[in-house]
């Protein structure tokens, strides 16, 4: 998957020519001959210029995810107060979901390293920090959360194991980390190439 191929597919998907300055590198897809696990190589995170471009499209973030109701159900099962951190909160769709549910026992905060996404959250009145997990920890090293959510974030992280350790270090003793990742390939991917499921 060379960068010009990826850029042309992204431009077609969003019906918007990708900016020249958007940094995208060449990738290869590798597959284990034993277990068939497939991954991109090199395993690096997308550039900030890529995320700034892709998140500027209103169709990038889905309007909801089934995981939202599952996590909310788990948190609402008891009456205690929950302090929640959504890492990679995007434009705040999960916070919209919590607000519409009228859950009074959840106080939520968000992190997103993409400025435009964090700005959209702030405009909605949500308490969001435009930083990554390391930046947040260095500024809030004594902050702990009862619930940390990471919806469709791990596949964007170069070192997911270390990332999860960072999340656990921010979790209170009785707290939990709720994580979800996309399932790929979906059935439709055998019929057409989904650029958003490829680096």
Give the topology.
Elements: H1 3-14, E1 28-31, E2 38-41, H2 48-54, H3 66-76, E3 82-87, H4 93-101, E4 106-111, H5 115-123, E5 128-129, H6 133-139, E6 145-151, H7 160-169, E7 171-180
Parallel strand pairs: 3-4, 3-6, 4-5, 6-7
Antiparallel strand pairs: 1-2
Q: What oligomerization state is this entry in?
A: single chain
Uncertain spans = none
What's the total number of strands?
A: 7
Number of helices: 7
Task: Tell me the overall shape.
Answer: globular
State which percent range the strand residues make up. Answer: 15-25%
Largest sheet: 5 strands, parallel
Explain the overall architecture.
With 199 residues, the chain is α/β, with parallel strands linked by helices. The protein has helices at residues 3-14, 48-54, 66-76, 93-101, 115-123, 133-139, 160-169; strands at residues 28-31, 38-41, 82-87, 106-111, 128-129, 145-151, 171-180. The strands form two sheets. A five-stranded parallel beta sheet has the order 5-4-3-6-7. Strands 1-2 form a two-stranded antiparallel sheet. Strand 4 (106-111), helix 5 and strand 5 (128-129) form a beta-alpha-beta unit. The longest helix is centred in the first third of the chain and has 12 residues, at 3-14. It is globular, with a radius of gyration of 18 Å. 22% of the residues are buried. The mean pLDDT is 91.
Quick summary:
The protein is of the alpha/beta class. The chain contains 7 helices and 7 strands. It is 33% helix and 20% strand.
């Amino acid at each position: 998957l060379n960068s010009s191929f990826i850029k042309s597919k992204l431009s077609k998907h969003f019906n918007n020519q990708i900016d020249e300055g958007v940094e995208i590198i060449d990738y290869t897809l590798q597959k284990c001959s034993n277990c068939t696990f497939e991954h991109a190589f090199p395993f690096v995170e997308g550039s900030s210029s890529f995320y700034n471009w892709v998140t500027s499209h209103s169709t990038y973030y889905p309007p909801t995810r089934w995981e939202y109701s599952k996590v909310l159900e788990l948190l609402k099962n008891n009456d205690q107060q929950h302090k929640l951190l959504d890492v990679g909160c995007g434009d705040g769709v999960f916070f919209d979901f919590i607000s519409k549910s009228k859950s009074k026992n959840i106080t939520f905060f968000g992190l997103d390293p993409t400025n435009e996404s964090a700005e959209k959250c702030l405009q909605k009145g949500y308490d969001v920090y435009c930083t990554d997990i390391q930046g947040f920890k260095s500024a809030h090293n004594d902050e702990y959360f009862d619930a940390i959510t990471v919806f469709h974030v791990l596949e964007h992280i170069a070192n997911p194991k270390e990332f999860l350790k960072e999340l656990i270090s921010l979790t209170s003793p009785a707290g939990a980390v709720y994580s979800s990742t996309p399932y790929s390939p979906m059935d439709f991917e055998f019929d057409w190439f989904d650029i958003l499921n490829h680096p």
